[in-house]
Each structure stands twice: as C-alpha cells, then as structure tokens.
C-alpha cells in the first residue's frame, strides 16, 4: 500500500492558497507518498488544482476550529503535518491517528521553531518546514492556468464579500468604484460567495451594471478561478479571491483593514496594491467593518485601480506597494 502523508489545514480558500508553498514543499519531500489534505469538502477542487495534493479528507469545524479526523481509514499516516495552527488541539487531532512522524508547532520533541505572530503566513509555514529539513519557497504561489473558460474575459472583477463583516468594504463604495470604472469603458462584473447573492445584486444595481454582470449564486471553483485568471483586475477585501489573483498573477487592489498586508497581503510585485491604514491589529472575524477599512475612500481605491489598468498585465517585479489610506 502506498504510504500516506496527512496534512491538516482545514480553513478557508485564502488559507489554502497561502499554504500552497508549504504544501508543495511537503509534496517534494515525500516522493512516492500519497499526500492527503484535510480541509472543508467545498475546497476539494481548489486543493487538487494546486498540484500539491493527491486526495482530500473532508474535515471542517465551526469558526475555524479544529475538526475531528476520526473518519480517517486504513493504516496510520506515515507522516502527519499540522499546518492548521500553533495550538495543541490541531496537534492532538493528528496525534490521535498514531502517525509514524508528527510535524507540529506544538510538538515538544523535537523542539519546533518559535511561532512568530508578526510573520507573514506564507513565510511562517515555509520556515516551519525548514526546521524539519523540508525546503519550501514562499514565492511558489502560482497555480496552473484553469481549464475552464472565463465567464467574463478581460473584465474588472469587483468582489465585495468576505467571510466576516470586519473585512467587507461598504457596498455603496464598491458600487461607486464599479460605476466609475464602467463609465470609463471597462466591463465590470460583481461576484460573491453562495450566501452573498443579495450583496452582489445590490452592488451591481447601485453601479448600474447589466444583469449578466452580476455573477451571483457562488461560482464553482473552476469557473471562479478562470474568471480571476482572465480578469484585467480584481478589486476585493482581504479574502480568498485576493490570494487567487496572486496565484494567477492577475493585477489586484486589496482593501485591507484588521490585518496588515505584511501578515496576509500579496507578495512583492507591481501587479498588486494593498491599501491599508496603519494601526494596531483588529479582529478579522468581527461582525462590524473594521475602522481602518472604513478609512479607505472610494477615490483612493479607484485611483489605484485606474493605475493598474493603465499599466496592464506587465511582467511581475519587485516592490508590492502598501499604500496607507489617507485619514
């Protein structure tokens, strides 16, 4: 039987994509093994698209908690890797399967690297693996080109939604930006998750977009990936789609609020602009918009979008711009 490596990262789309460099490091480190990723079943297609995962173990828990892995079948994993967090809960969920080897921040023996709260997510997990002798490159974020056709090739994609209200820029501001870009001749489409139909329709209506450009209902991952890969620009909050734009080298404007771009933002590239108001970290899961996010104005975001659209999809280079929002 083929030996298996079980990786736990049962979080969201952005977490999955930020973890791609680490997943690829694991894939290279264990040739001849089946790499199984435990994550929510809705992310199966996205996980397999990375090329770093052979199969998926459906696993999820409310509020980004640690899921049970008791439904694992067959022999214990040869290796278990905790990319879920730094607490004992995720370590213990993997340890309960009696793996041959367990890699975790909370593993007492051998001593793991120290958790750094001020470290970028991509860097964190690559450094973690390096402590166990596994090489991973934080810049290894690109996904293969999607097989599906884009439903709106060359469009500006505006994504107003987010898992929590803390990271949602107000709908009226998204609509004002969308209207301004449409009036300048750009096709603009609005998209959202499966529970964000009302938000998508509201923004599209406020912006005066035709019905075909309100992409509600929650696109399947393959179609969503193709949409972002074929877009002229993505404008979104700090969400999974922002990471998808990075994965496809699509120019993007990311509106950051409770979490600094230095922790979750795009890598250094002139393709990406992260708008952010510096200050102490907020709660990314709060049920009200973060005050820093609200200090990003429509004019600022629209100007950043125009600049990237004028530049086009130029080759990537050094120097992602983190632009403090004006008071």
What is the CATH-assigned architecture of the largest domain? 3-Layer(aba) Sandwich
Which residues form runs of ≥5 with pLDDT under 50?
315-327
* Shape category: globular
| Structural category | alpha/beta
Distance between termini? 61 Å
- Which CATH class of the largest domain? Alpha Beta
Range of strand content: 15-25%
- The counted number of beta strands is 12
Q: Total domains, how many?
A: 2
What is the tally of helical segments? Answer: 12
Return the average pLDDT rounded to an integer.
Answer: 93
Verbal overview:
With 327 residues, the chain is an alpha/beta fold. It has two domains: 127 residues, 3-Layer(aba) Sandwich (Rossmann fold), CATH 3.40.50.2000; 169 residues, Rossmann fold (3-Layer(aba) Sandwich), CATH 3.40.50.2000. Helix content is 31%, strand content 15%. The strands form two sheets. It has a seven-stranded parallel beta sheet with strand order 8-7-6-9-10-11-12, sandwiched between helices. The longest helix is centred in the last third of the chain and has 14 residues. It is globular, with a radius of gyration of 20 Å.
SSE inventory with pairings:
Blueprint: E1 4-8, H1 13-18, H2 20-29, E2 34-39, H3 44-49, E3 55-58, E4 79-82, H4 88-95, E5 101-103, H5 121-130, E6 156-159, H6 171-183, E7 188-191, H7 197-207, E8 214-215, H8 221-229, E9 233-237, H9 240-247, E10 252-255, H10 261-264, E11 272-276, H11 291-294, H12 298-311, E12 321-324
Parallel strand pairs: 1-2, 1-4, 2-3, 4-5, 6-7, 6-9, 7-8, 9-10, 10-11, 11-12
Helix pairs in contact: 2-5, 6-7, 6-12
């Amino acid at each position: 039987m083929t030996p298996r490596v079980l990786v736990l990262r049962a979080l969201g789309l952005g977490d999955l994509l930020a973890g791609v460099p680490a997943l690829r490091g694991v894939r290279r480190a264990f040739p001849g093994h089946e790499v199984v990723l435990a994550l929510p079943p809705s992310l199966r297609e996205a996980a397999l698209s990375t090329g770093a995962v052979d199969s998926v173990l459906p696993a999820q828990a409310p509020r980004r908690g640690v899921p049970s892995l008791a439904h694992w079948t067959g022999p214990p994993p040869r290796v278990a890797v905790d990319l879920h967090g730094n607490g004992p809960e995720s370590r213990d969920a993997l340890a309960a399967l009696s793996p041959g080897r367990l890699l975790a921040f909370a593993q007492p023996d051998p001593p793991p690297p120290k958790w750094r709260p001020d470290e970028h997510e991509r860097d964190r997990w690559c450094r973690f693996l390096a402590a166990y002798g596994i090489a991973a490159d934080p810049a290894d974020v690109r996904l293969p080109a999607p097989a599906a056709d884009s439903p709106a090739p060359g469009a500006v994609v505006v994504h107003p939604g987010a898992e929590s209200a803390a990271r949602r820029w107000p709908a009226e501001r998204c609509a004002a930006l969308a209207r301004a870009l449409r009036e300048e001749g750009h096709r603009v489409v609005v998209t959202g998750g499966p529970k964000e139909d009302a938000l998508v329709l509201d923004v599209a209506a406020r912006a005066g977009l035709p019905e075909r450009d309100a992409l509600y209902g929650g696109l399947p991952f393959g179609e969503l990936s193709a949409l972002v890969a074929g877009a002229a620009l993505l404008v979104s909050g700090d969400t999974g789609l922002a990471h998808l734009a990075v994965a496809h080298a699509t120019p993007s404007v990311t509106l950051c609020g409770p979490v600094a771009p230095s922790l979750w933002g795009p890598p250094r590239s002139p393709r990406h602009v992260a708008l952010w108001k510096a200050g102490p970290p907020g709660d990314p899961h709060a049920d009200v918009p973060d005050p820093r996010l609200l200090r990003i104005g429509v004019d600022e975001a629209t100007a950043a979008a125009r600049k990237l659209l004028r530049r086009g999809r130029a080759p990537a280079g050094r120097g992602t711009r983190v632009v403090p929002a004006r008071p």
